[in-house]
Amino acid sequence: MSDNDASSGALVGVVGAGAWGTALANAAASSGARVVLWGRDPDAIERIRRTRENARYLPGVGLHENVTVTADLAALAEVEAALLVTPSQTARQMARALSPILPQAAPLVLCAKGIERETGCFLSDVVAEARPGAAIAVLSGPSFAADVARGLPTAVTLACRDGGLAARLATLLSGPALRIYHGDDVRGAEIGGAAKNVLAIACGGAIGRGLGESARAALIARGFAEMMRFARAYGGRPETLMGLSGLGDVVLTCSSAQSRNFAFGERLGRGASPQDAAAGKLAEGAFTASVLVALARARDVEVPIAQAVDDLVAGRVTPDEALDRLMNRPLRSEI
């Protein structure tokens, strides 16, 4: 991707026509890029093409005129950059499907937040296996698709090991109301995005159980300490976790029922089973909790809140038992 691509008219692919993919497609198009938005369901894509609206996920939000929709992956064969906006557990499958189609020079920007459950691999490593030698970036930060789609001010971060490429991608994808900061700490950015979903479930559970705002504040503070310990053990930088992809995302996701992870936890706290609590929607933290705990154990990192979430999601404990275990841990120095 050249410097000229970052200024005007670049062709950008967005893989995944859900709420977040559609919102990012509109944001990139608003900055002057030409965008190809891919979705796997031909009927749904045809409805979006005909109505110029993704009514299932973003009702009332029109599709930008610079966005073309398609159900054919081959339409991405000439893009200069691609955004992978499908669920984290499909990252390997989608990266393999895209590998023979995307130009080798086209960076792939990961927009899902999670860790591959089956292998315990971070998503950047998953994609690197499928596209060896190709550039990989991570887009993460406090953002709700509906806010971005409606042009409400939002700031996120984009990390790529090539700092110059990160800056060019940030310029390319930023829209009038979407401000993208950039950096080179891929590991820190993706850990922040994945771990905050687990913490959001814990905070939702506390509110659903009626434990109050003081309990939520304590969970946020101690959960963030867990995130910092975990990130440090796996090569993430503390300053990254203190930024948008860490602390910023924690503040948003742990304090709003718009968050699917928070809402999932809230229903768990009220006594719903994990299946009923999901309510047919994807809560990435439910998949991330177990693998995050396993990775933490492998590096001897204490993550008691993530462990409690994992046990709660797996049905090994009730909300009251999880709380009792956390409250009765040995007292220790906060630092």
Question: What does the secondary structure layout of this molecule look like, with pairings?
Answer:
Layout: E1 11-15, H1 19-30, E2 34-38, H2 42-51, E3 67-70, E4 81-84, H3 91-98, E5 108-110, H4 123-130, E6 136-140, H5 145-149, E7 154-160, H6 163-173, E8 178-183, H7 186-208, H8 213-233, H9 238-241, H10 244-253, H11 260-269, H12 274-278, H13 284-298, H14 304-313, H15 319-327
Parallel strand pairs: 1-2, 1-4, 2-3, 4-5, 5-6, 7-8
Antiparallel strand pairs: 6-7
Helix pairs in contact: 3-4, 7-8, 7-10, 7-11, 7-13, 7-14, 13-14, 14-15
Can you walk through the features of this model?
The protein has 335 residues and is of the alpha/beta class. The chain has 15 helices and eight strands. The chain has helices at residues 19-30, 42-51, 91-98, 123-130, 145-149, 163-173, 186-208, 213-233, 238-241, 244-253, 260-269, 274-278, 284-298, 304-313, 319-327, and strands at residues 11-15, 34-38, 67-70, 81-84, 108-110, 136-140, 154-160, 178-183. An eight-stranded mixed β-sheet has the order 3-2-1-4-5-6-7-8, with helices on both faces. The protein is globular and about 60 Å long.
